[in-house]
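FAQ: What does the model actually see?

It sees only this:
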Amino acid sequence: MRKVVLLVGVTLLLAPGLAWAWELDEKPVAPGEWGFRPVDGATSAMNPPAFVWRPQKGATRYDLQIAPDPSFQKIEYEITGLDLYCHCPPRSLAPGTWYWRFRAHHNKRGPSAWSMVRTFTLTSEATALPMPPRAELLARIPTQHPRLFVRPEDVPRLRELARTRLAPIYRALVRRCDAILKDPPPTDEPRKYPPGTTFKSEEWRELWWGNRVYTVRVLDSAAALGFTWLLDGNERYGQEARRLLMECAKWDPKGATGFIYNDEAGMPYAYLFARTYTFIHPLLSEEERRICREVMRVRGAEMYGRLHPQHIWAPYNSHANRAWHKMGEVGIAFLGEIPEAEDWVWYAMNVFYCAYPVWCDEDGGWHEGVAYWRSYMSRFTWWADVMKAAMGIDAYIKPYFSQVGYYPMYLQPPGTRGGGFGDLANTLDSSGNLGLMQIFAAQSGNPYWQWYVEAHGRPAPRADYIEFVRGATPAVKAEPPTPLPTSRCFRGVGQAYLNTTLLNAKDNVQVLFKSSPFGTQSHGYDANNAFMLYVGGEPLLLSSGHRDIYGSAHHKQWMWSTRSVNSITVNGKGQVEHSAESTGRIVDFVTTPAFDLVSGEAGAAYGRELRRFTRTILFAKPDVVVIHDRLVAREPSHFEYWLHAPTEMKLEGQRATVVKNEVACDIALLEPRGLEITQTDQFDPPPRERVKLRQFHLTARTPGKAADMTFITVLRPRRTAEPAITGEELTQESGAWRLVARTADGKLECTLPVDDDGSYVLRRLDADGTVVAEFTRAATPREN
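And it is asked to produce this:
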């Protein structure tokens, strides 16, 4: 009997079309994974969409099919033998509904069964961005040098521009090159960490970042000299660039500046070395070129080994999100000279088409905060320039880049001091967005983004070879953003910025809110349902702390903690720290000239502590902010309400006032009563001694335990020259809270739910200055 069963089993396995077919791993996407793309049932903004699927253990290649019907009777597009688990087709598809599937091949097990069928929709508005096949893509790159930023045929035109329209930038470059010749950078190889160096210590930090600065100085000097030599043939510039390049070529490629040893030094070494090499290629002897190729073959292989192929499926690694295109620059510069360079370029282009950018939504938001947005986007613009020159591909037609400028515009209206949520953002002002916004305005032709640039004043020409190349872009006519709503929600990254004006920070009152599906991972670690308040461009209620070094005790134990932001802890416990699983979401947003409303849900971010944490913020512009919190714990608990300010708060009962320079905010903690309120200027733990920081932290703790808890808080932002307005009445009636608050020109009436779900109706009664916010079961918020 056993033999019969076994024979039947063999017969089934060998049946036509089923021979050795094995099941794919299609388990649900885990936090930190890019996921199956296009998402099943989604409408793709790109045509064709880029396809990504879960890598299969032991698979050597993959097949992809696209069809207009779920039975795949007619195959519209098919490709076999893919060595990556992603693919962007080389041609667009017709508008309509499409179906796709993939399978994998295993050397011993043969082909798998086909995957489940997934669907996507294309509209006629989708942006066309097909990816050229490998051979065609690589053939577009010049065989001669230079290849990065400029092509050989561009050089005569750039030389003419240096004498005419771009003469100011050229003269700045010459001044920089003359200064380098007068005081050349040192070229001794940077030293490695001494034996016994403690990871993340101050000694470690000094070398970790110091070696990056050292490397950038010498090789960026070489690149600037080499590019300027291209423009004017100054032999002194060319020969000094050559000397610096060859001195750096002596450094151990796996030493102190190796990518694996210290990627902060290894990344700039790679792309700046490649730029210098391609700029001065004619000046190098064949022996010098051979030395350069040997050095960069080792360095490029290290980068490729760290990125390929895993970055496509798990792209949420902060440093890897800038390493891939720097590796791409190396591949282009050494294409045809290093055998592996083809793979480096091809992989970089697959990352661009299939898994970039990742920390964003198509609304233009950025999860990691404005500091990392500036850093990573500015570096990506280099790659965009390189792709355009070398391969004729316009990166800026991706949908994200059509919205990218609205993120800084709404986050930091001109004159804002402080950059909202995200690592290293707390000390940044709006002027730091100027360079990037100038690039994005020129590329998109967006008049509002150009207005933002000019509102800060046009920057003076810089001694920058990339700026020289970009200098030929046409001017954009600026228009103030007065037709735009003053507030905006970036729902995909879970952030909303509520403003009274976009024109200047001095006249602005701003509420910032976060409840993010990205969670608290990477550099966007601020806890969910946190808010901030800026008045006149000054942060009055803020995310506290200052990063002394990434991953230090203060950074991890204070800044990653819910205690450090304006949010709520439960029994002293906060949200899961620094995790993609610690998610929130914005469940409601509406903006009108008189009101803004945003609501977020973050209960899941607390692990098993909470069933619900819904925070709703109603902004009756410009002078009243109502914060309504509803929490449901799994068991009776204490709750702690946290507020953080740059100056000491004046406390009186359940009221507080924070004042900074010419602006202030009066705070009324209306519900619950009997809160135990304390204030301190101490951090737990504090930043390192070299960081001088004093901030104040208010904690309002519920006196007893409860499973359900409601907090209702009223903020009254104002200028210190204006009188404080008080007078709030809060009552509970008919299953709802009723709040009446005086305003400068009337009163605000709010109806807030106790526990029901629904929506708000917002309206203003101008006859007597009354503004009304009613919680109803209306389908969507509206203004009457």
